[in-house]
């Protein structure tokens, strides 16, 4: 059942894009932002797709680096993001996301290898969307750098002749990428920054400026100024995901999860309903006597309650006792 509720801004993980042409200072600026967002360089990690250029700024501090080489498939990026999450990093800089789209083994290259037909996007788009979801669903602050290059367009003049016109600089990523971001910074070759999208309201329609550590500190203050997020939120989400998998659902996107939860429980998948949803999913598992296989990606032990027993208010800790060494266990240990 869909519910009306009062709008309330909560503390959020930042998704910041830094785009610009070669030599504009994207990597350096992103690292300064990262240091302002967290208290220590040791909690910053950079995924380097630029032939080691990410380590040229090691004099700034002892940040961590993952070198990502071709093929630059969406799955390789996702693997690197998960590795950073597992290492307990707080801020991730992906330098850059352009290779996922236009690099060797990236989405455009995958399309070419499949034959370049329109229907081939039906195979590649879901893989790209999984990469986007890995960014959006992460519990880290994520900063992305994106290359910008000159865009051209073929036009026909009044004389009927076709000519090539420059259309300005365009991001090397799929159209609409910046719509997923909290904030999108554009840097020019003078290192001056403007803002093309700003959900924070801190920088939009302001004079151009140069990014510093202070810019990152401003962003952190904004991100932490809302309502405090439940520290067990990730574990509660994983409990719901585990239960849906045990019920036989394949969940790849937030939309898949929403549909499955409403189908089973009739309840909208929002944070305020997590406890009730989990209780309903466990009740369904118990009623159906689902045989849960001993697979680490789902659960190790039965999560059924005894027949006839009232279900208590379900908490991550209570579920953990029944789930055992699942993804939930790993989430709670972070």
CATH fold field value of the largest domain = Rossmann fold
Taking the sheet with the most strands, its summary is:
8 strands, mixed
- Count of discrete domains: 2
CATH class of the largest domain: Alpha Beta
Question: Quick check: average pLDDT?
Answer: 82
Unreliable sequence segments: 290-334
Task: Count the beta strands.
Answer: 8
Shape: globular
Q: What fraction strand?
A: 15-25%
Give me some keywords for this one.
single chain, alpha/beta, 334 residues, 2 domains, 8-stranded mixed sheet, Rossmann fold
Account of the 3D structure:
With 334 residues, the chain is α/β, with parallel strands linked by helices. It folds into 2 domains: 15-223, Rossmann fold (3-Layer(aba) Sandwich); 233-333, no CATH class. Helix content is 36%, strand content 17%. The protein contains 11 helices and 8 strands. It has helices at 26-37, 74-86, 98-102, 107-114, 121-136, 213-223, 233-246, 254-265, 274-288, 316-323, 327-333; strands at 15-20, 44-48, 64-67, 91-95, 141-156, 162-171, 183-187, 193-198. Strands 1, 2, 3, 4, 5, 6, 7 and 8 form an 8-stranded mixed beta sheet that branches. Strand 7 (183-187) and strand 8 form a beta hairpin. The longest helix is centred in the middle third of the chain and has 16 residues, at 121-136. The chain is globular. The protein starts with 14 loop residues before the first strand and ends with a helix. Residues 290-334 have low confidence and may be disordered.
């Amino acid at each position: 059942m869909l519910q009306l509720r009062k709008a309330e801004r909560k503390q959020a993980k930042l998704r910041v894009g830094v785009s610009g042409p070669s030599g504009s200072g994207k990597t350096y600026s992103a690292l300064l932002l990262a240091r302002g967002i967290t208290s220590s360089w040791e909690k910053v990690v950079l995924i380097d797709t630029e032939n080691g250029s990410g380590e040229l700024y090691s004099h700034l501090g002892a940040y961590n680096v993952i070198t990502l080489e071709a093929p630059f498939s969406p799955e390789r990026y996702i693997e690197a993001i998960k590795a950073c999450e597992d290492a307990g990093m707080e801020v991730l800089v992906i330098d850059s996301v352009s290779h996922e789209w236009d690099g060797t083994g990236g989405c455009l290259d995958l399309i070419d290898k499949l034959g370049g037909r329109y229907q081939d996007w039906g195979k590649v788009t879901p893989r790209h969307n999984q990469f986007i979801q890995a960014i959006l669903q992460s519990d880290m602050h994520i900063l992305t750098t994106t290359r910008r290059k000159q865009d051209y367009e073929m036009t026909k003049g009044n004389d009927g002749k076709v000519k090539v016109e420059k259309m300005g600089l365009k991001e090397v990523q799929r159209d609409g990428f910046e719509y997923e971001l909290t904030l999108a910074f554009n840097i020019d070759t003078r290192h001056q920054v403007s803002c093309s999208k700003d959900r924070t309201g801190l920088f939009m329609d302001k004079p151009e400026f140069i990014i510093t550590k202070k810019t990152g500190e401003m962003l952190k203050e904004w991100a932490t100024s809302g309502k405090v997020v439940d520290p067990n939120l990730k574990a509660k989400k994983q409990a719901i995901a585990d239960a849906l998998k045990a019920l036989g659902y394949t969940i790849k996107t937030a939309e898949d999860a929403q549909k499955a939860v409403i189908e089973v429980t009739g309840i909208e998948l929002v944070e305020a309903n997590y406890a009730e949803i989990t209780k309903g999913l466990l009740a369904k598992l118990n009623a159906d006597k689902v045989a849960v296989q001993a697979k680490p990606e789902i659960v190790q032990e039965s999560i059924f309650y005894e027949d006839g027993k009232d279900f208590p208010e379900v908490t991550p800790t209570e579920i953990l006792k029944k789930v055992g060494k699942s993804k939930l266990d790993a989430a709670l240990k972070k």
